[in-house]
Protein 1
Amino acid sequence: MRVLAAMSGGVDSSVAAARMVDAGHDVVGVHLALSSAPGTLRTGSRGCCSKEDAGDARRVADVLGIPFYIWDFADRFKEDVIDDFVESYARGETPNPCVRCNERIKFSALSARALALGFDSVATGHYARLSDGRLRRAVDGDKDQSYVLAVLTAEQLRHSAFPIGDTPKALIREEAAHRGLAVAEKPDSHDICFIPSGDTKAFLGARIGVRRGSVVDAGGAVLAEHDGVHGFTIGQRKGLGIAGPGPDGQPRYVTGIDAESGTVRVGSAADLEIFALTGERPVFTSGTALTGPVDCDVQVRAHGGIASAIAEFVDGELRVQLRSPLRGVAGGQTMVLYRPDAADGDEVLASATIRR
């Protein structure tokens, strides 16, 4: 099988590529250039796609003895991931750029080019598993990335491979060291890859500008002014610009954002509790839509935010009733439905973008 191995320059994708070589496949490595002006060096665990990362990927390819290329996806990444991220925050939403990158870059643009060039599959270093075409959680629950892969269609999954999903991260590092790969102890990337400073508010402010509005309480009383709703997200407690706790002495949290009026509402922790979700643009990873009410677990963040639920596919939307409330849920987030399976690992059923 001809396999295109997406190589970020990190330990996970390096071992994934190595395993595909060991399996006897015809492997070609490719590093995605996602920035038109990549930095020379990473800043510890922040940032990615730097010149250092490209060099690390090339050296691993040399050790593995496979061809290696760099493909320029910078323009596509800016349009489909960065611009989407900024526009979503400007609408008062809280998007996950890793989900969009997988959906529109790694398993859309990249996969389409790979198939056009005659490759059978794209292999990545994601922590997830495929079993009979079904997407499942990784063995290492702390590193599981099935959530950010749940936007993939059945056809995209058919041409995907996740070689390391059956192995805990610690053992992946040991394997990389045993193979003599210099990236064995390289730090994992954290935060948002295109904001290496980690200052999301400043990044958004520079692109959205000042759009003044008010912070109000549940009764509509103005508590403070702000420079833009992009500086807030549902569940936020700090940096609200208000003096002290609420009248009950308890902390106040962002409970609602109206980008059109510029209004940010704050309230108590109890006001954050959500019992129902509606998701648009659903994707069914098996290729078959849900029929009738389905018992499942729903996850609304990459790590955490999980509750037992009943889900239905109605009028083109996913409608979910939670058996216990979730907090800090925001429009623009991705919700992922899982079928619990202790024996083979939880199976991803569907995903959708939370509308309300």
Protein 2
Amino acid sequence: MKTLPVGELKAQFSEVLEKVKSGESFGILYGKKKKPIAMIVPYKDSVDKKERKIGLLEGKVNIQFTDDFKMTEEELLGLS
């Protein structure tokens, strides 16, 4: 992975995107101390992804919900 300060990234943005398209990754450095703050990585289409396991305990534990269990998506995500 190559790293670039923000100023260089802005000046070479099109070239960096072309390299990202061909598989390279870039770290973005920010500030006087040039601290790494972000990365630009190639986008992986979901077709390339392997089926993801639910978790490390899949097949080792049994989870059961009672018939009256109800939870909204907002509650699940902690938004309510």
